[in-house]
Design brief:
By secondary structure, the chain is of the alpha/beta class. Helix content is 41%, strand content 18%. Helix 4 packs antiparallel against helix 5. It binds 5-S-methyl-1-O-phosphono-5-thio-D-ribulose (MRU).
């Protein structure tokens, strides 16, 4: 079976697979304004760094087409949408990268009539989507060469088709390795608090007949100590110029555990995730999410009154713990300041 589509563009509307409903229901939200796209990103109906970028690009098309239909000037609406979409989630750089591409395309279209300018934005969003998916397929082929026969691979969060423009980064490599007959088992961290591993990664894999076992986040060290994990591969939300990697909370702990046990720790990401303007992980803004994600379970508070909660959605893995960064432009090795600069 072919992999799932997190989104598609049809008749001037964005169809978004509502990831909050998975794995129980497969339902697409049909979005016709940039505000609806911003809301979908905020409440995580669409999530995962490259997927957020692609959704925001289509949000910009909706801003232009909405103004056109209402007979309003496009420029103020474009500017409102750029600001509004950029304010949805702070960590994944793909969002800002995609908005910057849309802004540049808009500036090149300023002399055009509204309809032509809107068509130019639509063309740019479709191109971003297509390029991102192609990048994933390419890096997946490169990354699959690092997977030994009979591999038992551990991944964290969801870096699959759902989190990207299609095919996936970490799960793209897992898909390619499976097709090459090299994969024995994928271990998916459940990924507290939002359970992207348990709900999304396991769903994507089992749907395609790829063997998957879900573990709680605190079980990885024990499996590695028993020699049951051959490599770890995760996605990324932002890779700083020195090679530090922001990814889903828990990734850092996993990297330390992998390092201790001598298990290779790979990061898979398209070059749109590389942010050379951010010198190191210290400067990456980390999203803090609502405390109810931690304090509540199935709508019920599970903590005694007065107990405090912190809920950072991402952490930073120091470059020193990363065995390689797998991009569509090649497999990068330390020293990352040089190898990252070379591919951009
Ligand atoms: O909070 P989320 O679900 O958007 O976080 C997603 C992740 O951390 C992914 O691992 C990352 O975006 C890479 S996706 C290819």
């Amino acid at each position: 079976m072919s992999e799932v589509r997190p989104l598609f563009w049809k008749e001037g509307r964005l169809h978004l697979l509502d990831q909050n409903l998975l794995p129980d229901r497969v339902e697409y939200r049909v979005l016709s304004s940039w505000e609806e796209v911003a809301q979908a990103i905020r409440d995580m109906a669409v999530r995962g760094a490259p997927a957020i970028g692609v959704a925001a690009a289509f949000g910009m098309v909706l801003a232009a087409s909405g103004a056109l239909t209402a007979g309003k000037p496009l420029a103020p609406e474009i500017s409102r949408a750029l600001t509004g979409l950029a304010a949805t989630r702070p960590t994944a750089v793909n969002l800002f990268w995609a908005l910057e591409r849309m802004r540049r395309r808009w500036e090149q279209s300023l002399a055009m009539e509204g309809e032509k300018a809107t068509a130019a934005l639509e063309e740019e969003a479709l191109r971003i989507w297509q390029e991102e998916e192609e990048a994933n397929r390419h890096l997946a082929r490169l990354g699959a060469d690092l997977v030994p026969p009979g591999a038992r691979v551990l991944t964290h969060c969801n870096a699959g088709a759902l989190a990207t423009a299609g095919y996936g980064t970490a799960l793209g490599i897992i898909r390619a390795a499976h097709r090459a007959g090299k994969l024995e088992m994928v271990y998916a961290d459940e990924t507290r608090p939002r359970l992207q591993g348990a709900r999304l990664t396991s769903w994507e894999l089992v749907t395609e007949g790829i063997p998957v076992t879900v573990i709680c986040d605190n079980m990885a060290a024990s499996l590695m100590a028993q020699g049951k994990i051959d490599l770890v591969v995760v996605g990324a939300d932002r890779i700083a110029a020195n090679g530090d990697v922001a990814n889903k909370i828990g990734t850092y702990a996993l990297a330390i555990v992998a390092h201790y046990h001598g298990v290779p720790f790979y990061v898979a990401a398209p070059t749109s995730t590389v942010d050379l303007r951010t010198p190191s992980g210290r400067e990456i803004p980390i999203e803090e999410r609502a405390e109810e994600e931690v304090s509540c379970w199935e709508g019920r508070r599970i903590l005694p009154p007065g107990v405090k909660v912190v809920n950072p959605a991402f952490d930073v893995t120091p470059a020193a713990l990363v065995s390689a960064v797998i991009t569509e432009r090649g497999i990068l090795k330390p020293p990352y300041p040089e190898s990252l600069k070379a591919i951009r």
